[in-house]
Specification:
By secondary structure, the chain is of the alpha/beta class. The protein contains six helices and five strands; from the N terminus they run βαβαβαβαβαα. The longest helix is centred in the middle third of the chain and has 17 residues. It is globular and about 50 Å long. The structure holds adenosine-5'-diphosphate. The site of adenosine-5'-diphosphate has 19 residues, from helix 1 and strand 4. The site of adenosine-5'-diphosphate (ADP) has 19 residues, from helix 1 and strand 4.
Amino acid sequence: MKAVYPGSFDPITLGHVDIIKRALSIFDELVVLVTENPRKKCMFTLEERKKLIEEVLSDLSGVKVDVHHGLLVDYLKKHGIKVLVRGLRAVTDYEYELQMALANKKLYSDLETVFLIASEKFSFISSSLVKEVALYGGDVTEWVPPEVARALNEKLKEGKR
Ligand code: ADP
């Protein structure tokens, strides 16, 4: 069975990677789908995020990375995929995730959203926290893959130029 794990991934963190590995133990194929979230201002472009995720996941099989502009359910219908994977960190995630899952179900009735509970050791990590700490010169190497730590450094240097 095929599933899609959609998100902003701005940038991908070890929390995301954990969800991806666990989803791969449940599903035969997983598409990590980089999407635009109009509620968020992103540091990396969609293509930069896609490339970074591909680098980070290069050793894993059964996973593909793609980008999508527009409505998520359109992508799912086009590719014949009926399962969405999302991660839940804390009760604060629940309200938004519930709203999105119900809205997507209204738009595509065959769709099921599967929630994986974040692992305890990663549950405090978010892309926004990573960006904030990196911006002020803090060490984020325990929260993101090495490729991401390097990309963050580069991006911040670019910003200072
Ligand atoms: P979006 O803008 O779509 O919420 P994110 O990249 O912030 O995109 O998150 C994508 C998904 O990954 C969401 O379901 C989110 O709850 C989940 N997620 C984010 N960080 C973690 C983490 N540290 N552990 C587990 N799941 C996470």
